[in-house]
Known about the structure:
- The chain is α/β, with parallel strands linked by helices.
- Helix content is 46%, strand content 13%.
- A six-stranded mixed sheet has the order 4-7-8-2-1-9, covered by helices on one side. A five-stranded mixed sheet has the order 11-12-10-13-14, sandwiched between helices.
Amino acid sequence: MQPSSLDALADALADADTIAAVATAPGRGALALVRLSGPAAFEVAARVLAPWPLVPRVATLCVARDPRTGERLDRPLATAYPGPRSYTGEDVVELSTHGGHVAPAAVLAALVAAGARVALPGEFTRRAVLAGKLDLAQAEAVGDLIDARSQAMRRAALAQLDGGLSRRVTALRDRVLDVEALIAYDIDFPEEDDGPVPRARVAAALGAARDAVDGLLRTAPAGELVRDGALVVIAGPPNAGKSSLFNALAGEARAIVTEVPGTTRDALEALLDVPGDGPNGSARWPLRLVDTAGLRETADRVERAGIERSEQWVARAHAVLACGETTADVAATMAHVAPLTAAPVLGVWTKADLRGAPDDAPNDVPDDAPLAVSAETGEGLTALVDAVVRAVAARHGGVPAADEPVVTRARHRRALEEARAELDAFAAAWDDDGLPAPVAAVHLRAAAGALEEIIGAVDVEEVLGRVFASFCVGK
């Protein structure tokens, strides 16, 4: 943040309310965490807790009482964190109460009665940003870590929380400012003995800045897969074993498996968090499996709607598993879906367990057929997942290293694209010599501003509102 912004924010924090919230999810559990933060946090806590005051950063067994009636509510472990050495930069008290619905709610109500107010979603982390404890990208990583549904997203969020993305964006901003400094020198000191700044020097600095922005932008497709998972659509005719394969890969009975064609009328989804085979298990995508309605000609309007929905899923896929009971079925499915998608299509014979059964086995499938799987025995499932991961990685430039910053949020991607467009606009004006240098330099300032918005280095109240609206209360 700019120093002037920090001063204003410090003044705002000094006048801030004292807030409280239950920071753990509601429901049955051994413990719950109640947080209290603000300029009057210790005064509020003193009206509810005994003993008080507490030794800073030492958990102490206390009695929590209703400040109005004196009724004993719970016996929490309380820890005081004097500001600025706390999560929010303010005085903070954390209470480990008994779990469940009633005990934490009663303690929270007592804190509110003693002078606090209930926190808004994300307000604790928002205060941490305003106090300079985190930048905006790191704050978003807190939310991403809480919402992570896969190991890949957890690793990416931790790397972002450690400041990896922030350092990368700051370096990009510095490159843009280097170009801006050259232009400013040329504007402010045109008569210096060294003469005007050589245009080649400006062009080289601009090229380095654009290349750096492009490098981070190229991680956005991979970041999307890390965040949401690679969309893997299971397609094929009715009774091709799609739902059985989906259930086997998902590890639970998520789809109805019957002998009646057309059972799956709409898509079912499951996220497959695939263990990695690289250092720290990092070299894998999470896979977002989708089981779709059987592809066939039908006069049933409801089933037809399901089939059209299946084709829409295929069009959006990162990989398609074209399933069939025989090689002819697999070939027919591949021919059906190939024109609908730009994603790799992998043929899958779903009845490997029937190999060699004289009455039921499709004799036209050879023993060494690739991607032969069985939902019944588990045969070929690991090889199938490996093939899907390789196909997706080949199309999207490989799986990013565990410590490589990646762009996982649409907000970051838009800001980078805006910065790149402003750099292009400056380049066009500079190359054509069509605008005076002070006017052309406006594009450089806009590019730097777009990058600053990612980490919250400017006063962006509207951006803060959008970011923290999705946070859970108590964080």
